[in-house]
Specification:
Layout (H helix, E strand, L loop, with lengths): L8 E7 L3 H12 L9 E7 L6 H6 L8 E5 L5 H11 L4 E5 L3 E2 L5 H9 L5 E8 L10 H7 L17 E5 L22 H11 L4 E12 L8 H22 L7 H22 L8 H19 L14 E2 L2 E2 L1
Parallel strand pairs: 1-2, 1-4, 2-3, 6-8
Antiparallel strand pairs: 4-7, 5-8, 6-7, 9-10
Helix pairs in contact: 7-9, 8-9
């Protein structure tokens, strides 16, 4: 392991049992342009892999990119991210995933605004690999897989972990990603909540979405109907967690709303059975029905717990006190 004396940028990749994907991701990073005068390191956090991940990382020599291999056995993407952030030494932490290909000119547009003190975080684009496109993709499902357009003026860009850069100083005020939003728990949206917290803290978030996009080469089975249904359920549960604990939102007549959405999900399911469409996909109607049903169900569950944040809080409450 070669360490740079003072790295400017730390590229952080969290991985678990995707050694083949990770190898291709690291190979793409090896070809990306390093801006003149910048020192860049790579931090790979192995989140309990049982495949060849350690061998892939330790045998990888990217010449211009010294690699630090870190093990985090406790499962959870945000747990791994939080561990990696503690290891990163750069002024900028550039997050990406273990199943993407980065463009040739990636580091400069993602990191320069932070290094020049023009922004505190930068949102990058995400493009689905062309071989993964399906004719049925539209609506919310398309947004899940593809973000390449800058948001309308005045809206905060979405900081998605597959392509996002942060000034290390933001972690002094918003210290970690919420680990309850991990896969295996509520499922997702740790990066979304973190983005909202940064905006609430007054940090400047700029967009490089239309300027630079990583290409997502995820496993095709994530497009199966069962996988997409699970993704919609996770989205609803995560929405409920953020709404209740962070926004302190609890709609009136919650049980009645839940029952209405339950009936709606059943009707949508009957419609699907009668139409017998392509079993691979999920329509926007089905996706929306599942997300909203699960969000109300999640609110019924979450409201039994003490709130985990003060209203729009930056630090999670522990044992009744904000820590």
């Amino acid at each position: 392991m070669r360490l740079l004396p003072n790295p400017d940028v730390s590229i952080l990749i969290c991985t678990r049992n995707r050694s083949t994907f990770l190898r291709d991701t690291l190979a793409s990073i090896a070809t990306t342009h390093i801006p003149l005068g910048l020192n860049v390191e790579i931090i790979v956090v192995d989140n309990g892999s049982t495949d060849e991940t350690p061998l892939i990382v330790k045998s990888c020599d990217l010449f211009s990119f010294p690699i630090t291999y870190v093990q985090e056995p406790q499962k959870g993407l945000d747990i791994a991210r939080n561990t990696g952030i503690k290891t990163c030494r750069g002024r900028v932490i550039l997050l990406t995933d273990d199943d993407v290909r980065v463009p040739t000119f990636w580091i400069e547009p993602m990191c320069r605004p932070i290094l020049n003190n023009d922004a505190d975080a930068v949102a990058g684009g995400i493009e689905m690999a062309s071989h993964l496109w399906r004719d049925w993709m539209q609506g919310d499902i398309l947004v899940w897989r593809r973000i390449i357009a800058d948001p309308p003026f005045g809206q905060t860009p979405p900081l998605i972990g597959a392509n996002a850069a942060y000034s290390k100083k933001v972690f002094a005020k918003v210290p970690k990603f919420d680990e309850e939003l991990d896969a295996g728990k509520l499922g997702l949206a740790g990066d979304i909540l973190f983005s909202e917290q940064l905006a609430e803290a007054g940090f400047r978030i700029s967009s490089a979405i239309s300027k630079t996009a990583v290409v997502h080469h995820f496993a095709p089975d994530r497009l199966s109907r069962s996988s997409l249904i699970l993704r919609a359920r996770d989205q609803g549960r995560s929405d409920a967690y953020i709404a209740y604990h962070w926004l302190h939102s609890e709609p009136r007549l919650l049980r009645l709303r839940f029952l209405y959405r339950l009936v709606w999900v059943v009707l949508v399911r009957i419609r699907f059975i009668l139409k017998k469409p392509n079993l691979e996909g999920l329509t926007p109607l089905e996706s929306d029905a599942i997300i909203k049903f699960e969000s109300y169900r999640g609110l019924l569950i979450e409201r039994r717990r003490p709130r985990q944040y003060t209203l729009r809080g930056l630090i999670k409450i522990s044992n009744g006190d904000e820590c």
